[in-house]
Amino acid sequence: VQLQASGGGLVQAGDSLRLSCAASGRTFSNNGMGWFRQAPGKEREFVAALSWRGDNTNYADSVKGRFTISRDYAKNTVFLQMNSLKPEDTAVYYCNAVTIRNTYWGQGTLVTVSS
């Protein structure tokens, strides 16, 4: 089972990025998926989560109104649309998928926002 995150990069404050996380090895259509991030020198923190049916979302206060999580069941992929990026959004972003027995993590994609 593998979660492959992509879409990170270097952008300026106010720009947008769309992160993708493609799952392979099994389907997560019946599982919640989400995004976390870890800034340099800080602990990993929650960013956003989406329920398995896609009808319930949850966001960290710091990203509400700017970030949107979504998923494509056919492609077994979860996305994170990030708008109005700020320098404090700079971090390595990790996707995850939660099952009854395990939590799977992607390898991370680096987002750097310059001021």
What does this entry look like structurally?
The protein is mainly beta and 115 residues long. Helices cover 0% and strands 54% of the residues. The chain is built from no helices and eleven strands. The strands form two sheets. Strands 2, 4, 5, 6, 9, 10 and 11 form a seven-stranded mixed sheet that branches. Strands 1-3-8-7 form a four-stranded antiparallel sheet, with no helix packed on it. Strand 5 and strand 6 form a beta hairpin. The chain is globular, with a radius of gyration of 13 Å. It starts with a strand and ends with a strand. The model has no long low-confidence stretch (mean pLDDT 95).
In short:
The chain is 0% helix and 54% strand. The chain is mostly beta strands and 115 residues long.
Strand content: over 45%
- Main beta-sheet annotation: 7 strands, mixed
Average pLDDT confidence is: 95
What structural class do helix, strand and pairing data support? mainly beta
**Poorly predicted regions:** none
Count the beta strands: 11
Distance between the termini: 37 Å
What's the total helix number?
A: 0
List keywords for this structure.
115 residues, single chain, four-stranded antiparallel sheet
Topology of this structure?
Layout: E1 2-6, E2 9-12, E3 17-24, E4 32-38, E5 45-50, E6 57-59, E7 67-72, E8 77-82, E9 91-98, E10 103-105, E11 109-114
Parallel strand pairs: 2-11
Antiparallel strand pairs: 1-3, 3-8, 4-5, 4-9, 5-6, 7-8, 9-10, 9-11
